[in-house]
């Protein structure tokens, strides 16, 4: 069995070079033509397992650096062809036959995306993930940059690099909620895929999502993490739980702002009344009650969201809503505090899970003080 060496081929630094074999008779005996990807004018036959795809070298070369280099190798009669480990002497229906060690379904989805102005992705559910993950693997493997970028862009809708993207993702997930339906695939599968194809931008959201699950569910999953990633998960999960406690404590740690002098106070009341707390004692009591409720709900009863600091911060920010609060100033202050805390938490997620990323995520940030 002969494999390509490093001579004459372009290989990705971030992805393992694929194994491609020259064809032999045993690979031709049980070949099944793919019903949609067997073109009578095709110039090369790709084989994955027992499925054959008769396609065009021009199409593959146009999109794939790897195949462009492959098809530009010396012909079978050139002595240098044996030096680089390629034998194109075997043919089927007058076309060279190249055997690929890939899933037939993944290869079919990749080729359909190339031929039919695709890819035609779905809504990031588990079935869609099977399609997009296969395309991402093979587009990375065969250096098809356009499809890799599209696949990553689609996955980032479910595993986004921004807080705004995360909030949109969670809104969609809540619309699908039921006892038997889960919109998104296992975050473990996403983490493993990101490691396989060198896509670190998917990792913070996937690790954070996974940290919200109890360890019993994580260990009973059909998917499994590598030991290093399991250690990162444990560290991040602990940091997230500490953050929930810190959020609740900070909610009641700062008193409402001191009321201004009488003349200024009257002016503010008349024109806006929205920036100064006019009832400090009542607001202290309200916030104390909110802290007690949050402590009971998230820390004692461990109800929904207890392992999700982004969710907790959002909920805390809405506890004293402007619409129903007698003190608009404190309500707005609480909303602004929650928004700032959520941004700070989002930026800390890569640090919690010991992920190395560039960009805004992962910047150290000190805790914010609630000013009321």
UniProtKB/TrEMBL annotation:
<dbReference type="InterPro" id="IPR000210">
    <property type="entry name" value="BTB/POZ_dom"/>
</dbReference>
<protein>
    <recommendedName>
        <fullName>BTB domain-containing protein</fullName>
    </recommendedName>
</protein>
<dbReference type="Pfam" id="PF00651">
    <property type="entry name" value="BTB"/>
</dbReference>
<dbReference type="InterPro" id="IPR011333">
    <property type="entry name" value="SKP1/BTB/POZ_sf"/>
</dbReference>
<feature type="domain" description="BTB">
    <location>
        <begin position="42"/>
        <end position="115"/>
    </location>
</feature>
């Amino acid at each position: 069995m002969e494999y390509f060496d490093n001579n004459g081929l372009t290989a990705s630094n971030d992805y393992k070079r694929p194994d491609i074999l020259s064809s032999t008779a045993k690979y031709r005996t049980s070949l099944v033509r793919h019903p949609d990807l067997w073109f009578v004018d095709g110039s090369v036959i790709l084989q994955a397992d027992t499925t054959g795809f008769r396609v065009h070298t021009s199409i593959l070369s146009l999109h794939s650096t790897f195949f462009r280099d492959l098809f530009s190798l010396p012909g079978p009669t050139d002595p240098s062809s044996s030096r680089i480990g390629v034998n194109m002497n075997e043919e089927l229906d007058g076309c060279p036959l190249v055997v690929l060690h890939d899933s037939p379904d993944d290869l079919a989805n990749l080729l359909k995306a190339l031929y039919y102005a695709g890819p035609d992705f779905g809504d990031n559910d588990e079935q869609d993930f099977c399609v997009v993950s296969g395309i991402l693997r093979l587009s990375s493997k065969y250096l098809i940059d356009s499809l890799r970028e599209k696949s990553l862009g689609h996955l980032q809708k479910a595993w986004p690099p921004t807080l705004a993207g995360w909030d949109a993702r969670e809104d969609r997930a809540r619309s699908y909620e039921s006892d038997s339906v889960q919109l998104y695939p296992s975050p473990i599968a996403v983490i493993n895929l990101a490691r396989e194809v060198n896509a670190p931008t998917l990792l913070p959201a996937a690790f954070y999502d996974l940290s919200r699950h109890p360890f019993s569910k994580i260990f009973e999953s059909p998917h499994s993490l590598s030991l290093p990633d399991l250690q990162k998960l444990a560290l991040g999960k602990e940091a997230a739980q500490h953050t929930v406690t810190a959020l609740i404590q900070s909610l009641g740690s700062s008193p409402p702002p001191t009321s201004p002098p009488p003349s200024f106070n009257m002016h503010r009341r008349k024109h806006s009344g929205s920036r100064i707390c006019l009832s400090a004692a009542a607001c202290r009591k309200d916030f104390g009650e909110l802290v007690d409720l949050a402590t009971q709900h998230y820390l004692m009863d461990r109800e929904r969201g207890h392992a999700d600091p982004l969710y907790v911060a959002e909920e805390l920010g809405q506890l004293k809503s402007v619409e129903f609060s007698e003190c608009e100033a404190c309500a707005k202050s609480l909303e602004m505090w929650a928004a700032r805390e959520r941004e700070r938490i989002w930026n800390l997620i890569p640090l919690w899970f010991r992920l190395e990323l560039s960009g805004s995520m992962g910047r150290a940030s000190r805790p914010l003080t609630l000013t009321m």
